[in-house]
Amino acid sequence: VDPALMHAAEAIGSTAAPALEAYWMPFTANRQFKKAPRLLVRAEGMHYRDADGREVLDGVAGLWCVNAGHARPRIVRAIQEQAAEMDFAPPFQMAHPKAFELAERVATLAPAGMNKVFFTNSGSEAVETALKMAIAYHRMRGDASRTRLIGRERGYHGVNFGGISVGGMVGNRKLFGSLLAGVDHIRHTHDLARNAFSVGQPEHGAELADDLERLVALHDASTIAALIVEPIAGSTGVLLPPKGYLQRLREICDRHGILLIFDEVITGFGRTGSAFGATTFGVTPDVMTLAKGITNGCVPMGAVLARQGIHDVFMNGPEHLVEFPHGYTYSSHPLACAAGLATLDTYAEEGLLTRAAQLQADFGAALHSLQGLPNVIDIRNFGLVGAVELAPRAGEPGKRAFDVFLDCYEQGLMVRVTGDTVALAPPLIIEPAQIGQIVQTLRGAIQRTA
Ligand code: PXG
Ligand code: PLP
Question: Which one of 257, 280, 323, 381 is separated from 393 by 20 to 30 angstroms, measured CA to CA?
């Protein structure tokens, strides 16, 4: 038996190490993992502890979600108390008070006018919900020909059929058949030739928004329901919006009656320096998808935030009938709502939703100090998101960054890798010394794997 597994067993108070065969792991190189498992057994503040008892600094807020850091007492208590008080309440034709309270609190953080909150259990479900809401909205208004959905190349919108259809990552799409019909994509904005090593938002590329005009010319606006984009694309390697780009998308959508959906699953809840990407970049969408940081990652939850006017279009017909035939068994789950409320309290008490704005300059400068290291072809930063893009090893795309990930983990730092990009998104409670530690560890890893 692997010694790491025995340590894991001891750490969780069990005498037997877990057998690894049954669990088919998501988005994981299963065979590689099971040869050398990386098992996490505890978490507190900025750190994990692994099965060997080693401390691991969390450079990605778990998976872009633990924005207030781990095991925050207020959140832990809220979940424990809620589990004892009421474990579950059906969300269809019934409700519990915390669902309303959390919806109000989320709406308060949002841009003015975005004040209707629909709960889901993940970002993927939030995306499906938003896409269905957009198509149904147009139909409810008597504009039933608007069914087409537009995404963007290199977008990530979760893993369900709608999300991978509007998404733009070939690896997440190619195995899964013909996907949703009636979808098209605008070009992505990643442009190393013009924007490499930009500090903050890149200068060049606002005109890439005009690609939406090309699709309007091709399909006609009367067939297009919505455009969905991430204000900052996270999963595909931290792709930042060029200056003026999101504003231009908003203008084009307005001109043609196209709903603009911001997928804020990663950019929500303080990652960019204010509550949402929409508030940071000063562009208000019609619909926003949220997840991850809404509960600090403690209980699964997602949400869709919509303009009042979108909601109101549905509030027609006989009052005893369901207006939007959509929802999940676990929509507004009591544990998730309790965790969400305690999370928002923690963010407010500690000023975490704006902390990324205060740390952005130091975080960016620290990261950009890696320029000039072997194979580093770009460094990008905004708020408390950063990325270091590496030149791929010849014939082995993704391998160099994966080696950096393994090396960092050995040195006690957890980062996230996508393609040959190393992504960083630490909990918003990070201290300056820990920013230094992240960058030093990364520096060593990049040198060792050169
Ligand atoms: N939209 C966006 C913008 C996301 O970042 C989802 C939707 C889906 O959320 P759920 O909760 O269904 O996973 C996400 C999730 C990565 C990585 O590799 C990022 C995500 C998920 C898994 C891995 O960086 N983001
Ligand atoms: N499949 C079956 C057979 C179901 O009965 C349900 C819900 O009742 C679902 C799928 C959907 O599950 P959820 O509401 O958790 O998304």
Answer: 381
